[in-house]
């Protein structure tokens, strides 16, 4: 059963088309990742799915509810973790959670029980009475997530929930999301950190310039680049002759697999160890100084690079 | 519907924890009332020396006799020329001038003034004044009383010197003297009493700071709209009308609390008398907050960012405070400004507070309350329509 169905979703701001015909489905209990660089259109897509912004055209359904026609009805099923910290800083963690719980019609024992459970899930029971303004960035993010799961939503939508936090808090958040998903909560997770999406999501949609350029499981996406690893030569840019390197490499390797970016020369290959020596020699012959050599296993970064010619963090 | 209350309660909690807000909302008004009330309050200590400025006395002389001429020309115009300037009016004009605060004191000398004094029957000079100028009124009152008392004595002396004209007139003069009132003092509203400087500035500063609180409240609403908590609120079960209602209720409670503290504080610390009608003060405060909040929401619907609203709010508050009489007493302004101030939430509120302090009954201020709430609802409706149109374009 589809928890979410998005069809031909479009959003324009004046002449600028931010989302261009995005379409995907998310099954009940699934965790779906939307991966893309900053400004790709992920947040705009999320804001339309949650019923916050009206789309220019397209269709969004949560379960059987038309989000565009009945946003309030659909919002009962969803919890949203916004990109920014949407909390009251001078209120304590417990006060914040109680307030947001009340906004979702929780009250009495049900509210108290839910707040206690959420504090435990986000690991802040001991700090429940402290004001949010005294928390670290990671702790604030955990409360930010807690406020979205008080009413036990069936669909949890998280918009870049780990931006700017320490590794320990990030791990805690990722574990929390994994646990919620394992308990049956459907997750939509947007990020420009491919490691997070790879770790959490069963299926992934890659968004760039407002379009969903690829979608599938991690394995399916890897197959779009032939499951090829990437050899990366970091070069000294000062004495590098890019034209000469390009000419040299295209004569010896398949042209579509070579990419030269800034101070890196890259080549995709299923068995990198077979061509490593030849690749290094070819670059060295042009008089270019190589400062580092890396072999990267096929991942989402490679897929994005292969599809767009750009890095995710560009 | 409970969500509306929880939203309002949350705003109250945030304000209660904001030390800066506490200083602005409570301490600043009390401090300014103390400074301004003391600076302008020459009536606060009776033993202090008082400098009396020259003032204009409006006179309507309906008497045909000589004594009224002596009183106005010799006594007021010549002997008291350093203190009083006499101007003559028709009866209706004098009433209007006093009512409009263009004159502070006026007298109407009735047509049988001379004859009555000469025969010792006593007479009535109608003394008109605005509520908060009791020194000028007292001076005029004393002069008339001294003059009126001296005339029968002089008349007796004159009659004793002219026995031919004697008869039993002598005894009637003495009977009349001291028995009948010589002067009938009336303010424009016969039940009103003077308002002291401390009272004036307690009301004026209270109104100005309530206005500032409303601006601050609307500014916070705009700031919240710029932040993610607003979007998060819209994603809960809270509807947009409930959101606005919750914010308004929160703002009204904050303002009423502030007004309560200012009123009780000035009463306990400075002994300010806010008049006998506590219900009048409470309802007028509520009406004023509704009016000011409506104006704030209307202004906020046209101004997009919190920063821009803060700047506009600061200028707007100062201009409205100046025009509305919070900085200088209302009656020194020209007629057109006094008329315009009745359409300003703070101007209307201040005038009504002063009426209440002067002893006006609750029934007398009902038109002001109705006008204030009516204007507030009108402003709020226009603002709400504009906000809804804007919101539909932006949010689902």
Task: Please name the defining characteristics of this protein.
heterodimer, A: 314 residues, alpha/beta, Rossmann fold, Alpha-Beta Plaits, 2 domains, four-stranded antiparallel β-sheet, 14 strands, B: abc type-2 transporter like fold, five-stranded mixed β-sheet, 15 helices, elongated
Overview of the structural elements:
The complex is a heterodimer of chains A (314) and B (396). Chain A is an alpha/beta fold. Chain A folds into two domains: 2-222, P-loop containing nucleotide triphosphate hydrolases (Rossmann fold); 228-297, Alpha-Beta Plaits (2-Layer Sandwich). Chain A has eleven helices and 14 strands. Chain A has a six-stranded mixed beta sheet with strand order 6-7-8-3-9-10, sandwiched between helices. A four-stranded antiparallel beta sheet of chain A has the order 2-1-4-5. In chain A, strands 12-13-11-14 form a four-stranded antiparallel beta sheet, covered by helices on one side. In chain A, strand 9 and strand 10 form a beta hairpin. In chain A, helix 3 (93-103) packs across helix 4. Chain B has 396 residues and is of the alpha/beta class. Chain B is built from 15 helices and five strands. In chain B, strands 2-1-3-4-5 form a five-stranded mixed beta sheet, sandwiched between helices. In chain B, helix 2 crosses helix 10, helix 8 packs antiparallel against helix 12 and helix 14 (345-357) runs antiparallel to helix 15 (366-394). The A-B interface holds A 47-48, 50-54, 67-68, 71-72, 75-76, 78, 80, 82-88, 90-91, 95, 99-100, 102-105, 107, 147 and B 2-3, 6-7, 10, 13-14, 17-18, 227-229, 231-239, 394-396.
């Amino acid at each position: 059963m589809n928890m979410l169905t998005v069809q031909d979703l479009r959003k324009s701001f004046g002449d600028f088309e931010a989302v261009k015909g995005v379409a995907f489905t998310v099954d009940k209990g699934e965790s779906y990742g939307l991966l893309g660089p900053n400004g790709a259109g992920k947040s705009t897509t999320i804001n339309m799915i949650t019923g916050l912004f009206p789309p220019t055209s397209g269709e969004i359904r949560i379960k059987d509810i038309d989000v565009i026609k009945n946003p309030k009805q659909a919002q009962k099923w969803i919890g949203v973790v916004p990109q920014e910290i949407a909390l009251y800083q001078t209120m304590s963690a417990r006060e914040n959670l109680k307030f947001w719980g009340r906004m979702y019609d929780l009250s009495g024992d049900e509210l108290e029980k839910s707040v206690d459970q959420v504090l435990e899930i986000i690991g802040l029971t001991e700090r429940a009475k402290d004001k949010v303004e005294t928390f670290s960035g990671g702790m604030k993010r955990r409360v930010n997530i807690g406020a979205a799961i008080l009413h036990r939503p069936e669909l949890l939508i998280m918009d870049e929930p780990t931006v700017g936090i320490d590794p320990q808090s990030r791990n805690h958040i990722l574990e929390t999301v994994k646990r919620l998903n394992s308990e049956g909560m459907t997750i939509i997770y947007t990020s420009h950190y491919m490691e997070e999406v790879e770790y959490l999501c069963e299926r992934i949609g890659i968004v760039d310039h407002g379009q969903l350029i690829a979608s599938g499981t991690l394995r399916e996406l890897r197959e779009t680049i032939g499951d090829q690893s990437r050899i990366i030569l970091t070069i000294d840019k000062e004495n590098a002759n890019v034209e000469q390197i390009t000419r040299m490499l295209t004569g010896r390797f398949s042209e579509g697999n070579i990419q030269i970016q800034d101070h890196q020369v890259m080549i995709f290959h299923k068995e990198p160890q077979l061509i490593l020596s030849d690749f290094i020699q070819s670059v060295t012959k042009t008089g270019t100084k190589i400062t580092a050599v890396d072999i990267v296993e096929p991942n989402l970064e490679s897929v994005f690079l292969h599809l767009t010619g750009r890095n995710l963090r560009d | 519907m409970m969500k509306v209350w929880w939203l309002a309660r949350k705003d109250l909690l945030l304000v209660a924890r904001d030390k800066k807000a506490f200083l602005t909302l409570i301490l600043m008004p009390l401090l300014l009332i103390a400074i301004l009330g003391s600076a302008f309050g020459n009536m606060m200590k009776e033993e202090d020396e008082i400098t009396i400025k020259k003032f204009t006395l409006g006179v309507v002389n309906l008497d045909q006799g000589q004594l009224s001429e002596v009183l106005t020309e010799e006594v007021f115009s010549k002997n008291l020329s350093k203190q009083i300037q006499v101007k003559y009016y028709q009866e209706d004009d004098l009433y209007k001038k006093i009512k409009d605060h263009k004159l502070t004191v006026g007298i109407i000398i009735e047509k049988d003034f001379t004859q009555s004094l000469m025969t010792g029957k006593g007479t009535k000079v109608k003394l008109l004044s605005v509520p908060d100028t009791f020194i000028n009124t007292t001076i005029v009152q004393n002069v008339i009383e001294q003059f009126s008392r001296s005339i029968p004595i002089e008349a007796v002396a004159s009659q004793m010197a002219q026995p031919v004209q004697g008869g039993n007139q002598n005894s009637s003069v003495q009977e009349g003297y001291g028995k009948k009132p010589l002067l009938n003092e009336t303010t424009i509203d016969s039940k009103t009493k003077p308002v002291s400087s401390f009272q004036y500035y307690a009301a004026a500063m209270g109104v100005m700071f309530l206005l500032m609180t409303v601006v601050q409240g609307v500014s916070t609403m705009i700031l919240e709209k710029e932040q993610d908590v607003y979007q998060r609120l819209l994603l809960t079960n809270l509807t947009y009308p409930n959101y606005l209602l919750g914010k308004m209720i929160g703002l009204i409670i904050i303002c009423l609390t502030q007004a309560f503290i200012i009123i009780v504080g000035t009463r306990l610390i400075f002994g300010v008398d806010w008049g006998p009608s506590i219900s009048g003060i409470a309802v007028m405060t509520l009406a004023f907050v509704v009016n000011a909040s409506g104006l704030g929401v209307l202004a906020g619907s046209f101004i997009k960012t919190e920063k821009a609203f803060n700047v506009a709010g600061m200028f707007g508050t100062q201009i409205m405070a100046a025009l509305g009489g919070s900085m200088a007493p209302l009656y020194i302004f020209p007629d057109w400004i006094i008329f315009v101030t009745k359409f300003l939430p703070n101007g209307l509120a201040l005038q009504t507070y002063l009426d209440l302090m002067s002893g006006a009954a609750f029934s007398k201020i009902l038109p002001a309350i109705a006008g204030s709430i009516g204007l507030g609802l009108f402003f709020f409706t226009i603002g709400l329509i504009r906000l809804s149109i804007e919101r539909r374009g932006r949010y689902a």
